[in-house]
Amino acid sequence: MKIATFNINGVNRRLENLLAWLRTAKPDVVCLQELKATDGQFPRTAIEAAGYGAVWRGQSGWNGVAILARNGEPILTRAELPGDPSDTQGRYIEAAVNGILIASLYAPNGNPQPGPKFDYKLAWHDRLALHAAELLAAGVPVVLAGDYNIVPEPRDIYPTRSYDDNALIQPESRAAFRRLVDQGWLDALRSVHPDETLYTFWDYRRNRWPRDAGLRLDHILLNNKLTRRLSGAGVDRHIRGLDGASDHAPVWISLRDAAAAD
């Protein structure tokens, strides 16, 4: 089973890129972020024609998340992150696919910091940690995939001082990611590639893609029900270099069948 996460940075603007990647990569499950589309603007017809069922939480502006399932229909279990009924931002969706609970998340950027946006970022990650602990306690296979908007370690960003004040690398942000992982989640990409330089995002500005001036922002976390099934992981870097590309590249993992992992 192949599960991927992809911050598409505008699902309608990048639709042809997305469909071409689906045809070649053939992921079984895809978590999308930053749809930049309302519910009614989501390209359901084109997605279904490509062989994928979908659930989504649309929103104009910078948000919106979705889960796609190849040759099937995701079963929606949650369309918001619990813990703050006043939060209406479309940043979290959860669905069951082939016996696995899948979450697609688009965490807040948090800039500028300090300030209310950074406070919201940290509070959102606190809520995510609380919900993640509940998912762990449920004892079912779970994947938390998406754009966490956190660079976990200094090696996950190209050598630079230009991000020193950026919310993505602040100690509080990194501590939030560590607290989540320390609950018992496996950072799948880093687990498979413990020593490699790994980037998933390259800003459009300052020639960062040609310079390989990247950051690792997109992560797939697995609970202990899935760690033994992990057989591979990677970043489809070439997608970032295509015409009209998102500033993120897809991240994917592959899982063995449950019987083969026993």
UniProtKB/TrEMBL annotation:
Record has Isomerase as a keyword: no
One GO MF term: double-stranded DNA 3'-5' DNA exonuclease activity
InterPro entries to which the protein is assigned, alphabetical: AP_endonuc_1, AP_endonuclease_F1_BS, Endo/exonu/phosph_ase_sf, Endo/exonuclease/phosphatase, ExoIII-like
EC number: 3.1.11.2
Hydrolase keyword on record: yes
Keywords annotated in UniProt: Hydrolase, Magnesium, Metal-binding
Top-rank lineage group of the source organism: Bacteria
Pfam (any one): Exo_endo_phos
Stretches assigned to the Endonuclease/exonuclease/phosphatase domain: 4-248
Coiled coil: none
Needed cofactors: Mg(2+)
Recorded family membership: Belongs to the DNA repair enzymes AP/ExoA family.
UniProt xrefs under PANTHER family: EXODEOXYRIBONUCLEASE III (PTHR43250)
Record's protein name: Exodeoxyribonuclease III
Species: Rhizobium herbae
